[in-house]
Design goal:
mainly alpha, 12 helices, globular
């Protein structure tokens, strides 16, 4: 096996993901919810903005953050290096592609000249292809590293989470390949927006194949240490296998009750995972309880009660707990939604509420929580820049989730003045939480002289 050393943490994955989140993803989201909540006219670009918002949030915010962490974290726990030159290519290609698509797709609704409109659609398509190539570099980097490590003990360290890792890599390829096809069809048909149904399918595929599995993989490897939870002594790989079967049943739209069964099985398995890792209940003894010798402290100062740190990362655990709480709520609501539809019960739960619970409540809150705990360490720092800001991120971020979800959970977008105002202002609260988080992370990723 090659003796290539591990590449240093590329802080620009985090910084550029924050830039896309603030100036594109969350700002467009705030614009959309303000239009809906305050009954403003939708305007020419409304549906184009919705589709661009989803793409930027998945690939720019969540995507680049996942890539930056995974390219540093997983090679180290498995001792399988990935070269720094490849990570720079990945970041460069995806950043250029996202910028091109963001600018072009938001401009096309205002263009009446056929030639200019066609040129912009070409830019959208080529930008999406550029992102797709960057994703192939990312997936290929992991694939090549794994092939180099065949026959060694390195791969054994990934055994518990290799099912989730494989789903994640597959999800990257599936989502971006579908996006390339959709933008080509939009170009060919001279359309203003992507095919709505296929775009929705690709968003669901990314959520189920990338967002949830990669978060589960990181959780399995870090939560016992960071949160002093019980050791993972159950067969995670079997749950990953069942989850993969459920996702296949759901996404392939099999005939009969297979799709419905897959959706329900997926939700049940996610709830089961949350129960097994003991993140919300903390019923089980922590891993330190099973040590042969009593756990000894290296410092006179006592750590926080129940945690191994001294508060140098802020109250990050509250964001982690809230993230998994919202995920559990999302799965419970999704089960009720599916059952009510097919049994004609008078309970209507709107799918947008479930999606926001997963992407804003779970994925974003988990990033807000895990980044202060992980990123400073990647930068060889002993604390996050502003630990006391983390608790404010928790409160403001979770208030935004409540404001976003409750108004639409059971009535959709049939707003009253009050519920519409809550929904419309939720985007502002998200942006405030993002500003606190962004300043904290930006300062935490400054390279010390």
């Amino acid at each position: 096996m090659s003796q290539t050393t591990h590449s240093p943490f590329n802080r620009w994955f985090i910084r550029i993901s924050i830039i896309f989140a603030f100036f594109a993803g969350f700002s467009m989201g705030a614009h959309i919810v303000s239009i809906d909540g305050f009954f403003f006219p939708q305007g020419k670009s409304y549906f184009a903005i919705i589709q661009t918002h989803g793409y930027i949030q998945f690939m720019g915010w969540i995507g680049l953050f996942i890539m930056g962490v995974s390219l540093y974290f997983f090679p180290r726990i498995s001792h399988i290096p990935i070269e720094a030159k490849k990570t720079n290519w990945i970041l460069g290609l995806i950043s250029v592609g996202l910028t091109g698509r963001y600018l072009a797709h938001n401009t096309t609704p205002y263009i009446s000249a056929p030639t200019v409109f066609s040129v912009l659609n070409w830019i959208i398509f080529l930008s999406t292809v550029t992102v797709w190539i960057g994703v192939l570099f990312y997936v290929g980097s992991f694939g090549k590293a794994v092939l180099k490590a065949r026959g060694t003990s390195a791969l054994e360290k990934l055994n518990p989470i290799k099912g989730f890792m494989f789903m994640t890599l597959l999800g990257w390829v599936v989502y971006n390949t579908v996006q390339v096809g959709l933008t080509w069809e939009m170009l060919r048909s001279n359309s203003l927006i992507l095919d709505v149904l296929w775009n929705e399918w690709s968003l669901q595929a990314f959520t189920l194949l990338v967002v949830i599995p990669i978060c589960f993989a990181v959780s399995v490897r870090t939560f016992p240490l960071y949160l002093r939870l019980a050791p993972i002594r159950w067969q995670v790989e079997y749950l990953a296998m069942l989850y993969a079967i459920a996702i296949a049943m759901e996404l392939l739209y099999l005939k009969g009750w297979w799709t419905i069964a897959g959706m329900i099985l997926r939700s049940v398995l996610v709830i089961w995972f949350i129960w097994k890792i003991d993140i919300l209940t903390r019923f089980k003894a922590p891993w330190t309880h099973y040590q042969k010798e009593p756990f000894k402290l290296d410092r006179q100062k006592q750590p926080r009660d129940g945690y191994p740190d001294y508060g140098e990362w802020g109250r990050f655990e509250l964001l982690v707990y809230s993230a998994y709480f919202w995920l559990a709520v999302a799965m419970i609501l999704d089960i009720f939604r599916i059952v009510s539809i097919y049994t004609r019960l008078p309970i209507l739960i709107y799918p947008d509420a479930v999606r926001h619970l997963i992407l804003l409540g779970f994925a974003t809150m988990l990033i807000f929580g895990m980044a202060p705990r992980m990123i400073p360490g990647f930068m060889k720092k002993k604390m996050v820049a502003k630990p006391h800001w983390v608790i404010w991120t928790f409160w403001i971020g979770n208030i935004s989730v409540i404001m976003r979800v409750i108004p639409i959970a059971f009535t959709g977008k049939s707003f009253t003045v009050f519920s519409g105002a809550l929904y419309g202002l939720s985007g502002i609260f998200v942006l405030i939480a993002l500003v606190l988080f962004s300043i904290n992370m930006w300062k935490s990723t400054v390279v010390d002289s």
